Amino acid sequence: MQPQHLRRPCLKTFPGLPESDDLRELKKSNAVVLTERPPKESPEWHAQRAKTLCVSELAGIMGMDNDSEHTRNKILRAKRGEYVFKYNEFGLKAMAAGKEFEPIALEWAKQLFPWTPFVKFGSLRHKRWPLLQGEPDGLGINPITGRWMPIEIKTRCWPSIEEAVPYQSVLDIPLKHVIQCQAYSELVDADWSILFSFSRNHGYKAYYIPRDKYFWENWVETILAQFELDILPPQVRNKEPLRCYLEEFLNTKVIPL
């Protein structure tokens, strides 16, 4: 019989089934599965998104996204219907590349982590902070603890899809990806998450990112409370303490595989 600390949730059923063992295990975490959601990009989808804060928007809200379109002010204005994000040609190509290569990257990840399948449940919502929701690229199992372990795939396409290489060291990882991984770990009550950097012509690099409860409790929950009460200032003030904290976290806690 498998030792208790190596046992894991049953993954023999298809993800997303209302009564599957997978969902019963997932509901024990901080996440709630959104079993019904409108078709992507539909008016109903946009209306639902406007009422929530997506995991991918969290870094912009915190002032840690270098994309000029993902500032706190623009995100808040977009949710009020006052702004439409403008993506340049490279941004559109990057989104298309992500959509095309993400399934390929996930297959590579399955080879790197043969001890766990990666399943998808769709969009998840936080129990304590229901305004926060996100859709991990996959959920695997930590073989030591038996707890969920989200994987976030980042397809590289700079300076071009042909020349792009995966993040070669922790110093290459943008801080926004760290925040995203932390949010997914919080959603499913994970000890670790996996950042999987993939390029079409130059393979992949993977990194273990440990959950940082101090970061969540002292930075993220303050932001979520202000967002929920609609009192979040449109501009981010004094980003340096958070930037320094995240850079130190990258240098000392993140583990390359």
Comma- or semicolon-separated keywords:
single chain; 257 residues; alpha+beta; Lambda Exonuclease, Chain A; 37% helix; 16% strand
Give the secondary structure arrangement, pairings included.
Blueprint: H1 21-26, E1 31-33, H2 43-50, E2 53-54, H3 55-61, H4 72-79, H5 89-112, E3 124-126, E4 132-134, E5 138-141, E6 148-155, H6 175-188, E7 192-199, E8 203-210, H7 213-228, H8 240-252, E9 255-256
Helix pairs in contact: 3-6
Summarize the structure in words.
The protein has a domain at 88-256: Lambda Exonuclease, Chain A. The protein contains eight helices and nine strands. It is globular and about 45 Å long. Helix content is 37%, strand content 16%. The longest helix has 24 residues, at 89-112. A hairpin with a 3-residue loop joins β7 (192-199) and β8 (203-210). α3 crosses α6 (175-188). It has helices at residues 21-26, 43-50, 55-61, 72-79, 89-112, 175-188, 213-228, 240-252; strands at residues 31-33, 53-54, 124-126, 132-134, 138-141, 148-155, 192-199, 203-210, 255-256. With 257 residues, it is of the alpha+beta class. Strands 5-6-7-8-9 form a five-stranded mixed sheet. Strands 1-3-4-2 form a four-stranded mixed sheet.
